[in-house]
Design brief:
291 residues, mainly alpha, 13 helices, 0% strand
Length: 291
Amino acid sequence: MKLNGNGQVMLAGILWGTIGLFIWYMERAGATVEWISFLRVFFSWIILLVLILWRSGWASMKVSPKIMVYCALLGLICHGIYNIFYSLAVISIGVSLSAVLLNAATVFTAVFSALFFQEKITPLKGLALVINIVGCILAITGGSLDLAALSLWGLFYGIMAGLCYALTAIIGKVAGHGTDAFVMSLWSFFWAALCLLVWILWQGGTMVMTPSVLGMGFFYALIPTVLGYILYYLGLQQIEDLSRVPVLASLETAAAVILGMNLTGDILNLTNLLGIALIIASQWLIGKSRQ
């Protein structure tokens, strides 16, 4: 069965739901946040380089200077900075809640789409966004308004990761016109890896080269990164209404929560789960909305 744009973005979201697990295990194996982020984008670049060379040769990797600028922005903001913020969030507040916080991207994308692409926020879409926000609040707080019990830095990291994630849809949509999704991903990962490597060297960061860290880094690149982003970019070019994209991809939340509870021991109460259910409901509503 061939997936349409909506299906491709939703499948990408499910694959992204495994991201927190790789971060969680790699951090416990001794890798730093910056090194985890670097291995992710570096191995992704290697995998795509081999794939593109095998498929169509060196000539296919050529892009215009304008597209290269967009790829650099995707790499720096949407892969490099995003990975650091998201990794910090996972370490601070856990796999499940970090994935929940990424749904703040829904609101950011709707605002950016209205500003840059004149997309209308219809009543149904507005309702979906409100439900999404309420779901995020319930899922994060568990019904408690005691801010002292929350990691404020963890919340900040998660929201900033959501902002960087939202910009993926905006920059990727502009850059993707007439550009091969594999090639666009290749160059964005190249710039992300370069920026992160410079940062690590400048900070004198630790580079853990153990087989377990490198092995997990490779599969972190292959499964949620290369496969996930290729599906995402392919689906992105088939969807006109960009504000729908992060909501469709919010299946990541459900996948991350299920995996987080079963494998890393994240404990969620009924209010947390109600919030997650509202997030999924907002996904269904946004699918019904029309411009």
